[in-house]
Amino acid sequence: AEAPHGRALAAVQHLVVNAGAVAHAAAQPVQGVHLPHEVPLPDAAEGRVAGHFPWVMTQGHPQHRAKAPATSPARRRSPRRETRGARGSFPRPLQAPAAVPMVPILCVSSTSAAREPPAGRAAGGAEAPPSSRSRAPAARVPAALGSVAAVPDGAVAAAGRRPPPAADALRLREVLSRLSLLREDVSEASTLVNTVVPHLVQAIRDKDSCFSSIERQSAGSYYERVKISEPNEFDIMLVMPVTRIQLDESDDTGAYYYVSFKRSPKEKGWLKFLEEDGKLSAFKMLQALREIIKQEVKNIKVTVARKKAGSPAITLQIKKPPLEISVDIILTLEAQQSWPCSTQAGLKIEQWLGTKKRRDFRFRSIYLVAKSTDLFGNFFLWNTWRLSFSHIEKDMIKNHGNSKTCCESNGPKCCRKGCLKLLKFLLEQLKRKHPKELEKFCSYHVKTAFLHSCVMWPNDTDWHLGNLDHSFQQCLGFFVDCLQKSQLTHFFIPQYNLLSQEDKARHHFLSRKISYELNNGFPVFHENY
């Protein structure tokens, strides 16, 4: 009775050995066939070959096997030979199901895993760990736009909740298209501004001899071509050349200075703007300029807005229904002299725009704008001036490429300006949603973070137009890191921290809000306030 059992057991063992050989042969590379990914078969020792052929484990003891189904004539003509022993023929080994040849299935699985969208990003823009590769992955359907499940404020999204990168990029491009200014609106708004401002500039020159040499210079996001939403705000600098001035630091930031003349100015009209200690008073100059403008706008359809506490700008309001435009006029001193020592280690653009470009920038004039000192409450002392680099920033953003042909008509396109627009819009939307908590933040914070990002990733290939979502999240990750550390250095003055250590709670609040937006597909981009 044991003899048939022994022969059957030997047959099964023989089958297992043959199965291992088949699996080993199938795992060998086939000449002329290139697989996109090398996928190792499971080791036979792990499941004792059951990993390759699970059907072996389901057949049971040889004496309890059911009869094999009748084979078709085609199968009977199979060239496979029966294994014979010394005493006769053994039964034909059981035929493996169709799923036995695992190599083609594994190859398909490998290709699917290669094309499968990566898992969602963690907070700060970092890539989440990739999911483990499955031998037989289920088909994945990309999440629909706007259908991302939200996670708690400040939490990290679970892997797979974020839409795939293609959907991210599509959503961001849709937002950018909404932010683009219509050419007709831009033309009408700029026509109004260009009608009013030259008239005012000429009137200011004629009214006061000290202002006779002022020149108009455009500044701000509109002229940097990164204005978002509507062309309803313009910044105009009225630049006054000054000579032989002395700059004395007013604090340890390296950004604020007292201005005085080394010699008595030739134009005696300057004397009325000097304090008793010889320092040039920003308050007196702004007051004189404001009075001239208020008198002149009586002849045109322009009004002067009330003074904003702590703001050095004189704001004009131009109304021509349906348009309502505000123009900030900023009094600026221009000095043809060396930049202060506090700027020596700043403007680290050698790897981005080149050493020659940095040298050319540093040969330009220095600009100073009026800066108030908040003594207590709403009482401001206007006796200091702040270094301004808006003319340099405008040039860098306009000619932003590591190569000279970046974003030219026949050159490769990048997404730098798109990232800056999205950063500005994100902060603007969050400020509308949380005005009290975020009142101390301004667009210059994200602009500075963007310039630092351009230095960290200097090559045009780092900002390929098709990588908008990745580049934007890199910038955002850097800004969040600065907020968490309460450390954002001025781009031109490294010793000057734009994030006061006294406002750490506000910094962390904004960091949490940005992380929430990042982990949930930026829902704030689609909200109206």
Indicate the radius of gyration in whole angstroms: 36 Å
Q: Biggest sheet: strands, sense, closure?
A: 9 strands, mixed
CATH architecture of the largest domain: 2-Layer Sandwich
Helix content: 25-40%
- Estimate the strand proportion: 5-15%
Output the number of helix runs. Answer: 13
Low-confidence stretches: 22-27, 29-152, 154-161
> What's the β-strand tally?
11
User: How is the quaternary structure best described?
Assistant: single chain
Q: Would you list the SSEs in sequence order as H and E?
A: HHHEEHHHEEEEHEEEHEEHHHHH
**Average pLDDT for all residues:** 74
Domain tally = 3
Structural class: alpha+beta
CATH domain class name of the largest domain: Alpha Beta
Q: How far is the N terminus from the C terminus?
A: 88 Å
CATH topology grouping of the largest domain: Beta Polymerase, domain 2
Q: What would you call the shape?
A: globular
Pfam family, one: Mab-21_C
InterPro entries: Mab-21-like_nuc_Trfase, Mab-21_HhH/H2TH-like, MAB21L/cGLR
GO molecular function: 2',3'-cyclic GMP-AMP synthase activity; chromatin binding; double-stranded DNA binding
Family: Belongs to the mab-21 family.
Please give a structural write-up.
There is one protein chain. The chain has 529 residues and is of the alpha+beta class. It has three domains: 2-27 and 34-73 and 82-103, no CATH class; 179-390, Beta Polymerase, domain 2, CATH 3.30.460; 400-529, Poly(a)-polymerase, middle domain (Orthogonal Bundle). Helix content is 35%, strand content 14%. The protein has 13 helices and eleven strands. The strands form two sheets. Strands 3, 4, 5, 6, 7, 8, 9, 10 and 11 form a nine-stranded mixed beta sheet that branches. A two-stranded antiparallel ribbon has the order 1-2. The radius of gyration is 36 Å and the shape is globular. It starts with a helix and ends in a 10-residue tail after the last helix.
